[in-house]
Design goal:
about 190 residues, alpha+beta, 9-stranded antiparallel beta sheet, two-stranded antiparallel ribbon, 11 strands
């Protein structure tokens, strides 16, 4: 068991570690994910559901504050070792770690790699604290879309630059023809526009 834990720790700390937050509703699935490696972190935002401040952007983001994530990656890797150890034990019973996770409809949960951490989990508070620290970093959009402040245009971003824009048609892309509404963007995700 000791060698299995060392193998899991080594294999976990070498590559990128992915932490995502998910919420399912009749409108669709809201997703925000962080991929942490030793020297960088990528933030993929497919919904603004979890944003504490209004932010009408979807896509991929990066930060110049990546050095500050080293400790968070180490903590996530340590949690992942625990989870994988439990998962290996559960496999002997033809079950998995995810079988232990509560699946409450319309409750947000985290995915650490392929492992579901629900709000009832003992791991949830620590994972949530890491997620919130990562969310609070200064993120620059690399690619995706954003709505103009007057909510009249969709601006397309590529390589960190605004490359084009088009008229934003509330009636076509949103459930209601004016804010507040939920708006779907086929390749980018869901915006909750207020």
């Amino acid at each position: 068991m000791k060698y299995l834990s060392l193998f899991i720790l080594f294999s976990t700390s070498v590559g990128a570690t992915t932490l995502g937050r998910y919420y399912s509703s009749p409108e669709g699935t809201s997703v925000q994910k962080f991929s942490l490696s030793k020297s960088s972190v990528i933030y993929e935002k497919r919904s603004n559901f979890f944003d504490e401040k209004p932010d009408n952007r979807l896509g991929t983001f990066e930060t110049s504050e990546a050095k500050s994530i080293k400790e968070d990656k180490q903590k996530l890797d340590a949690i992942l070792v625990k989870v994988k150890t439990v998962d290996e034990f559960m496999k002997k019973r033809n079950e998995s770690f995810n079988d232990l996770s509560m699946k409450n409809p319309h409750s947000s949960f985290f995915m650490l790699e392929d492992y579901r951490i629900s709000q009832e989990s003992d791991l949830y508070p620590e994972v949530k604290a890491i997620y919130e620290r990562l969310s609070d970093l200064n993120w620059k959009q690399k690619k995706g879309i954003k709505l103009s402040e007057d909510l009249k245009k969709i601006i397309h971003v590529k390589d960190g630059k605004e490359v084009s824009n088009e008229i934003f048609n509330f009636a076509f892309q949103c459930q209601k023809s004016e804010p507040p509404s939920i708006c779907s963007f086929k390749d980018e995700g869901i915006l909750y526009v207020k």
